[in-house]
Amino acid sequence: MSNSGNLPVIVALLAATLRMATPLIFAALGGVFSERAGVVNIGLDGMMTAGAFFSIVATISTGNPWIGILAGIIAGALVAVIHAVLSVSLRADQVVSGVAINLFAAGLASFLIYELYKTNGQTQVVTGIPYPSVAISKIPLVGGFLAELDWFVILAIVLVFVGNFVLYKTSLGLRIRSVGEHPSAADTVGINVYAIRYFCVILSGALAGLGGTYLSLGSIRLFRDGMVAGRGFIALAAMIFGNWKPKGALYACIFFGFAQALELFAQGFGLGLPTQVYQALPYVLTMLALAGFVGKTTAPKADGTPYVKGER
């Protein structure tokens, strides 16, 4: 195949990479905020599941996908409240709390699918958010590429830069980072450590819920058991790979998104590897990234450590 013949395939691959990376970007950005404030959030996978499921439930009930998006964000945030209460107020083990949330969310969604719709495994298909692909494709030079994206992809990238600005250019970001590094010192100067941690954990749930919403409402437009498929854990790996920074997490998510997109285009590039290799590739890369880069990254000093007011 000539280079000119390869160009449409390459453009489609790049667009698919961003689409695959989008739910990871939302969840990883949520993880950045939670862990920058000192709370490990292993429960991102469950929060994504809650967002994916309840966005479809709300869309089916109202016929309005915008309400579905809002419901997905709220669902993720409400699950995060559970994690915040357990981790911040009750000082439970944050990893155990996150794992419990993952199991709870998956089980609840599975149970409610049958209770609400009398079907096993998946819901009906719903109408998604319209995207003017035809009009966008007429933009010179980049129109063909942008036409293969959607509003969620654009929002995810915008939120990364907004998140980076908030963390590093605002007083709120300074408070968040100080709580994650030296909570007792932050408390001494009048920063409410508990309030900041609650805010960041709930924000992480809302963002993860938005990531789940994209998987269901923005992608295949239904909810199916197991559709999150460990993406919350890949998002955590991307966050670590990106050194707990929004932009770093973005680049890592694009890397993992490319691994997922490659499965769709492998035949087009004439690669003769079995399909299972491409299906396993994102998870293999996740393990390799964690094995190779964990020692080279620096987590916030108080990450995973419950704070007790008055203790030094």
Architecture overview:
This protein is mainly alpha-helical. The protein has a domain at 22-228. Helices cover 72% and strands 0% of the residues. It is built from 13 helices and no strands. It has helices at 3-36, 44-62, 65-89, 94-117, 133-136, 143-146, 151-169, 171-181, 183-188, 193-220, 231-241, 246-265, 275-293. It is globular, with a radius of gyration of 20 Å.
Layout of helices and strands:
Elements: H1 3-36, H2 44-62, H3 65-89, H4 94-117, H5 133-136, H6 143-146, H7 151-169, H8 171-181, H9 183-188, H10 193-220, H11 231-241, H12 246-265, H13 275-293
- Tell me the major beta sheet: none
Helical coverage, percent range: over 70%
Cα-to-Cα separation, first versus last residue:
66 Å
β-strand amount: under 5%
Mean pLDDT: 91
Number of helices: 13
Shape: globular
Order of helices and strands: HHHHHHHHHHHHH
Number of strands: 0
Query: Which residues form runs of ≥5 with pLDDT under 50?
Result: none
The secondary structure category is mainly alpha
- Rounded radius of gyration (Å): 20 Å
Summary tags:
single chain; 312 residues; globular; mainly alpha
Brief overview:
By secondary structure, the chain is mainly α. Helices cover about 70% and strands about 0% of the residues.
